[in-house]
Amino acid sequence: MSNLEPIHTCRIMRADCLEPHNLSVADAARLLGVTRQSLNNVVNGHAGVSPNMALRLSAAFGEDAHFWLHHQLEYDLPQSRQRVPLLNVTPVGRRPADT
Fold first, then answer.
1. What's the N-to-C CA distance of the chain in angstroms?
2. Which domains does the chain have, with CATH numbers?
3. In degrees rounded to 5, what are phi and psi of residue 39?
4. Selected residue with higher pLDDT from 85 and 55
């Protein structure tokens, strides 16, 4: 496993989609058929790429939808793993410790 910090999908979107085509968020949102606010949330890292957004990005910019979903998962999973100790989950087949 790599010690490198995962790259948020928003950085890839900016570098591969918006900047090379000189697109503002508003322009890209119109191309993708989404609201400016919706795309702004993704581009600024406040929301992840959904399957719907991945299909839109794929149609507009040519990368396969799996590309976008894979990168989102590669970012989200390590973030979630950091929070696992905070979850109150009892593994199946085990009982919580008696108090």
1. 37
2. 9-81 (1.10.260.40)
3. -70, -40
4. 55
Residues near 18 by Cβ (< 8 Å), separated by ≥ 6?
A: 24, 25, 28, 43
User: Are 12 and 71 within 8 A, CB to CB?
Assistant: yes
Can you say whether the dihedral through the CA atoms of 8, 50, 71, 91 is positive or negative?
positive
The average pLDDT across 72-99 equals 78
Exposed/middle/buried for residue 8 (C-beta within 10 Å: 0-12, 13-18, 19+): buried
User: What is the average per-residue pLDDT within 29-54?
Assistant: 96
Amino acid making up residue 51: P
CA nearest neighbour of 75 among 24, 5, 19: 5
